[in-house]
Design goal:
Blueprint: E1 7-11, E2 16-23, E3 26-29, E4 39-40, E5 43-44, E6 51-52, H1 54-59, E7 67-68, H2 83-86, E8 92-96, E9 99-104, E10 107-109, H3 111-130, E11 136-141, H4 147-159, E12 163-169, H5 170-177, E13 186-193, E14 198-206, E15 209-218, H6 223-242, H7 250-266, E16 272-282, E17 288-296, H8 297-303, H9 305-321, E18 329-333, H10 340-350, E19 354-356, H11 363-375, E20 385-387, E21 393-398, E22 402-407, E23 430-438, E24 447-455
Parallel strand pairs: 1-11, 11-12, 13-18, 15-20, 18-19
Antiparallel strand pairs: 1-2, 2-3, 2-4, 5-6, 5-7, 8-9, 9-10, 13-14, 14-15, 16-17, 21-22, 21-23, 23-24
């Protein structure tokens, strides 16, 4: 008898992660040991003791150097590529043979290892809920993730003890869980604005076929960056008032960023919020100082205007790449889509209905669970056909260090292309081929995803 395939979906988010299963034909997001459907994507590794989720997030206040968050921004990246990401974390990231490694004490961890700890925790929650071993998973990634980042995510799943059936783009997964009429169809933009990434995908839906026409976005723009903008404002205000720069104090910054996130969330439904952090530091006379400030919705929107402008730019680029179709609606996904200014700007720019799921944070996990159930041959599997696109060019290195594109970004996959090349010099019996993934004109600025030697060329 064939072994039962028990499949789950894992939405491995930048700030929050979820695991979902199918029960009685419906997706159910599993509640973790803390009683929440969302698990903070945080790992604490102080003194060799591993904590994941809410327990780890609580450690950020007192042990910021031993607590890892926003690891998603390091997936599939070289050390050089993480320069901006390193500025916004409080733990140490070091260069090991050109690759980023999290350094805690004397131990080094790859981004895949840290992510696998989060995935293992999600797997355990699902097993506790189902009462049996989980063997397979569909894991979600941003649509704009590079090939290297997707492969790193797959490796993290395997390290967690999962057979990864598919890496699926988050916007595509969200469509599966939406209330869009798949038979009637239409053209929709999916806006997935999460903790550390932003994706805009334009989809053509018709007769149970979901075809992604184009995607655009940034894996270094997310809700976390808004927290940092608020934090920087708070630090500047405190320095102006007290003459003390809190940005040099990791513990103080951990508390400020945590409260900045809370303030951002409150301002989605309030006109202002008070930020009150007692005993943030001491003055020159060893007297305690408190950080107390009021952030209004107007000031918050002023702080994030440049980010909102950037988001609209990404959306317009995605629309342009898709041929500027007439949209039937915009599907919102991710907690940062709750921000009123984001919704106002999208509605003003495109003039169509904003479609909000019952829970913006869970839609991706629910849609991926539908796909996992289908791939596992589960009862009531979806008949939808998903046609995705590659977010970046694929090509090879050619003479002069150029990146010559063979398959262009936003090409529907699977696909194949052919192109004829000549050798750089006459009578050359072999050629070393570098396969590239990226959007830059020079080969050195793109990701090398494979190398091979083509020999036996007739002379």
């Amino acid at each position: 008898m064939a072994k039962e395939i028990v499949a789950i979906s894992c939405d491995l988010g930048s700030t929050q992660s979820e695991v979902c299963v199918i029960e009685n034909g419906k997706p159910v997001v599993v509640v973790n040991r803390e009683g929440s459907q969302m698990t903070p994507s945080v790992v604490s590794l102080k003194d060799g003791e591993r904590k994941v989720g809410a327990a780890a997030k609580r450690q950020m206040m007192v042990n910021p150097k031993e607590t890892v968050n926003i690891i998603k921004r390091f997936m599939g990246c070289t050390y050089k590529e993480t320069e901006e990401a390193r500025k916004h974390v409080l733990y140490d990231v070091v260069d090991v043979d050109g690759q980023p490694r999290v350094k805690i004490g004397e131990k080094l961890y790859s981004p895949e290892e840290i992510s696998s700890m989060i995935l293992h925790d999600l797997k355990k929650s699902a097993e506790d809920y189902l009462g049996k071993e989980v063997t397979h998973a569909v894991i979600t990634v941003p649509a704009y993730f590079s090939n290297a980042a997707r492969e790193a995510t797959k490796k993290a799943g395997e390290l967690a003890g999962l057979e990864v059936m598919r890496i699926i783009a988050e916007p595509t997964a969200a469509i599966l869980a939406s209330n869009i009429d798949m038979k009637k169809g239409g053209k929709y933009m999916v806006v997935d604005y999460g903790g550390a990434t932003i994706d805009f995908s334009v989809a053509d839906i018709e007769n149970d076929v979901v075809e992604i026409l184009a995607t655009n976005g940034d894996t270094f723009t997310g809700g976390r960056d808004l927290d940092i903008l608020i934090s920087n404002w708070l630090v500047d205000e405190f320095k102006s008032e007290n003459g003390i720069d809190l940005s040099k104090d990791p513990q103080a910054m951990s508390r400020i960023i945590t409260d900045a996130e809370k303030a951002k969330i409150e301002l989605s439904s309030s006109s202002q919020t008070e930020i009150n952090i007692p005993y943030i530091t001491i003055d020159k006379d060893n007297q305690p100082l408190h950080l107390v400030n009021t952030l209004t919705k107007a000031k918050f929107e002023q702080l994030i205007t440049s980010v909102a402008d950037k988001l609209i730019g990404y959306a317009k680029e995605a629309m342009k790449a898709a041929g500027n179709p007439k949209l039937d609606g915009i599907l919102l996904v991710g907690g940062s889509c709750r921000i009123p200014l984001v919704q106002e700007r999208l509605k003003k720019e495109f003039g169509v209905e904003l479609i909000k799921s019952s829970n913006l944070d869970l839609a991706v996990a629910e849609g991926a669970a539908i796909q996992a159930n289908t791939l596992a041959g589960g009862e009531g599997g979806s008949e939808l056909l998903l046609l995705d696109v590659i977010p970046m060019n694929y090509g090879i290195t050619t003479e002069g260090g150029l990146a010559t594109t063979i398959i262009e970004a936003n090409t529907t996959i699977p696909c194949k292309r052919s192109q004829i090349f000549t050798t750089a010099v006459d009578n050359q019996p072999a050629v070393d081929i570098e396969v590239l993934n990226g959007l830059r004109p020079m080969a050195r600025d793109n990701k090398v995803v494979g190398k091979f030697t083509l020999d036996g060329i007739p002379l």
